[in-house]
């Protein structure tokens, strides 16, 4: 991916941000990677202004990259001025949200990161959080209430056990973002992305299995 991006740089240098954004939204990882690289200095400049308690500087930078990715997805030239201005808002907002959440010793709701109906393993698996929690009891109102309580407990447990990278990777995975794009968004190699996702899955599985034994 890095080699391909380097070869494409001269071509992309001639393109306007709006053209690159259109391609990135269509799933072109090279266009996305070019934009992430182009505005990396901007993310770092913003990240240096903030401090996350108990986190490394790179964690703050990663939150900024997530904000930049959000800007790529949400930018509308008809509603905003320049992409750079819009990206600044998204980057700052994402970092400040993480800082505020950390200061409250909380994180963003885990339904941002986890879907109870998406398989935790490969696409051929039917194992998901919903059927682990509520198998055979879906129609019982009392069980629905218990089910909701258990999901809340699960989310709280995952907040505490998943690292920042694991949460971000799981978040992107649940949105259907492929590894190549995750690598560009988070500034991590695909092997690191895969390892983080596997760790998150194992932690989720271990938690669910421990609850089933009680």
From TrEMBL:
<dbReference type="InterPro" id="IPR000943">
    <property type="entry name" value="RNA_pol_sigma70"/>
</dbReference>
<keyword id="KW-0804">Transcription</keyword>
<keyword id="KW-0805">Transcription regulation</keyword>
<dbReference type="InterPro" id="IPR014284">
    <property type="entry name" value="RNA_pol_sigma-70_dom"/>
</dbReference>
<dbReference type="GO" id="GO:0003677">
    <property type="term" value="F:DNA binding"/>
</dbReference>
<dbReference type="InterPro" id="IPR013324">
    <property type="entry name" value="RNA_pol_sigma_r3/r4-like"/>
</dbReference>
<protein>
    <submittedName>
        <fullName>RNA polymerase sigma-H factor</fullName>
    </submittedName>
</protein>
<dbReference type="GO" id="GO:0006352">
    <property type="term" value="P:DNA-templated transcription initiation"/>
</dbReference>
<keyword id="KW-0731">Sigma factor</keyword>
<dbReference type="InterPro" id="IPR013325">
    <property type="entry name" value="RNA_pol_sigma_r2"/>
</dbReference>
<dbReference type="InterPro" id="IPR007627">
    <property type="entry name" value="RNA_pol_sigma70_r2"/>
</dbReference>
<dbReference type="GO" id="GO:0016987">
    <property type="term" value="F:sigma factor activity"/>
</dbReference>
<dbReference type="Pfam" id="PF04542">
    <property type="entry name" value="Sigma70_r2"/>
</dbReference>
<feature type="domain" description="RNA polymerase sigma-70">
    <location>
        <begin position="59"/>
        <end position="72"/>
    </location>
</feature>
<dbReference type="InterPro" id="IPR013249">
    <property type="entry name" value="RNA_pol_sigma70_r4_t2"/>
</dbReference>
<dbReference type="Pfam" id="PF08281">
    <property type="entry name" value="Sigma70_r4_2"/>
</dbReference>
<keyword id="KW-0238">DNA-binding</keyword>
<dbReference type="InterPro" id="IPR016371">
    <property type="entry name" value="RNA_pol_sigma-H_factor"/>
</dbReference>
<dbReference type="InterPro" id="IPR036388">
    <property type="entry name" value="WH-like_DNA-bd_sf"/>
</dbReference>
């Amino acid at each position: 991916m890095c080699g391909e991006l380097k070869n494409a740089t001269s071509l992309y240098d001639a393109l306007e941000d709006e053209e690159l954004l259109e391609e990135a939204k269509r799933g072109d990882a090279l266009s996305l990677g070019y934009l992430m690289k182009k505005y990396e200095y901007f993310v770092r400049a913003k990240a240096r202004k903030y401090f996350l308690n108990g986190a490394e500087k790179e964690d703050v930078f990663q939150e900024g990259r997530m904000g930049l990715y959000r800007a790529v997805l949400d930018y509308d030239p008809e509603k905003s001025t320049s992409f750079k201005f819009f990206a600044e808002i998204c980057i700052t907002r994402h970092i400040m949200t993480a800082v505020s959440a950390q200061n409250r010793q909380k994180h963003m709701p885990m339904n941002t990161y986890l879907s109870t109906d998406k398989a935790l393993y490969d696409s051929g698996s039917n194992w998901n959080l919903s059927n682990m929690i509520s198998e055979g009891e879906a129609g019982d109102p009392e069980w629905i209430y218990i089910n909701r309580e258990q999901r809340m407990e699960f989310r709280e447990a995952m907040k505490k056990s998943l690292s920042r990278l694991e949460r971000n990777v799981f978040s992107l995975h649940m949105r259907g973002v492929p590894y190549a794009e995750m690598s560009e968004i988070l500034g991590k190699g695909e092997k690191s992305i895969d390892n983080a996702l596997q760790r998150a899955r194992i932690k989720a599985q271990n938690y669910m299995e421990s609850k089933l034994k009680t």
